[in-house]
Design a protein that fits this description.
single chain; mainly beta; Jelly Rolls; five-stranded mixed β-sheet; 5% helix
């Protein structure tokens, strides 16, 4: 219960008469001790200005100088202010909260909404003028809606904030979206990634930057056919059957003198999985762990002269 001097007192329910089941049960820590004129219900009308030089009816509220924020309970809406606001309310319609300077936070039940200066939010009211819905996301007010308000009657001078657009509202509520900073060159960054390397790709960019001294572990599987038209080209089946390779690669079975040519990594088996970091090229195969000796982006490809192949390998890369 609220005392005449604004303090909150607690009374045991056993001393109260009548049905107390409609009362919300809260703890002492949850109670907000509203002072005089800090908890009320009002109705003003909306858009009832008789002429352009006279504002529509409402309440113009400015928080006292030196107070960071105060709480009001207005028509069942908890309004936290550190600002100057203008309120309008119409029963069975809406309450509108215009924030002229500073910021307001509107709370109904568990739903809260930050309302920055230059915008307004509205909350639905029932037939008794009590909030029965969540505060809406704010939108920019128009200068016409606030220009005729009696700001000269306020105890402190204010700077009237102009209307905000959608991007400015998002920025005022959520702050700027900061880009993820790139690590300095030479900074070791761990990674764990699985990529698909198609047999018809040239050097494939994994998107992983390697720093000298990092340990890289590869695990690869799948199959790539280096002569997709082999069977239809009239080549014997026993030759065509050898044209599908795992990441480990293997020997090339020459047919009618056809050679392979010089592969990207001459020291690695034909048609195996190979990699490149900077100017360094190396064999990977289906499983390998080694320590990088240079910096650069990690690239992958099949150790073939060209890349008119079909199929793919799945490669998991762990960098520590």
């Amino acid at each position: 219960m609220a005392l005449d001097d604004g303090q909150v007192a607690w009374v045991s329910g056993e001393y109260l008469e009548g049905d107390d089941s409609p009362l919300e049960v809260i703890t002492e820590d949850e109670a907000i001790p509203y002072g005089p004129m800090q908890a009320f219900v009002f109705q003003s009308g909306i858009g009832d200005s008789p002429c352009a030089s006279v504002p529509s009816s409402g309440l113009l509220i400015q928080t006292p100088e030196g107070r960071h924020e105060i709480h009001f309970l207005v028509n069942g809406i908890d309004i936290e202010l550190g600002s100057t606001v203008y309120l309008q309310a119409e029963f069975n319609d809406y309450m509108k909260v215009f924030v002229i300077e500073g910021q307001a936070i509107l709370t109904v039940g568990e739903d809260s909404q930050v309302v920055p200066a230059g915008t307004f939010s509205q909350v639905p009211l029932d037939v008794n003028g009590i909030a029965n819905g969540a505060p809406e996301f704010p939108q920019g007010y128009t200068r016409v809606e606030v220009r005729s308000l009696p700001f000269r009657l306020l105890p402190d001078n204010i700077n009237i904030t102009g209307p905000l657009d959608e991007d400015e509202i998002e920025l005022a509520i959520n702050g700027p979206v900061l880009p993820t900073p790139e690590p300095p060159i030479g900074t070791a960054v761990s990674a764990n990634k699985t990529v698909t390397l198609n047999g018809n790709e040239d050097w494939f960019d994994t998107g992983i930057n390697i720093t000298s001294g990092q340990t890289i572990t590869f695990t690869a599987s799948g199959s790539i056919n280096i002569w997709p038209s082999c069977y239809t080209d009239g080549v014997p089946a026993e030759v065509c059957d050898t044209m599908t390779y795992s990441p480990d690669g293997g020997d090339y079975v020459s047919y009618e003198g056809r050679g392979v040519g010089t592969t990207p990594v001459t020291s690695a088996p034909y048609f195996s999985l190979v990699g490149r970091i900077g100017n360094s090229r190396f064999f990977i195969g289906s499983s390998r762990t080694f320590v990088a000796n240079g910096n650069g982006t990690l690239y992958l490809r099949i150790n073939d002269v060209d890349y008119n192949n079909v199929g793919s390998w799945t490669v998991t890369i762990d960098v520590q």
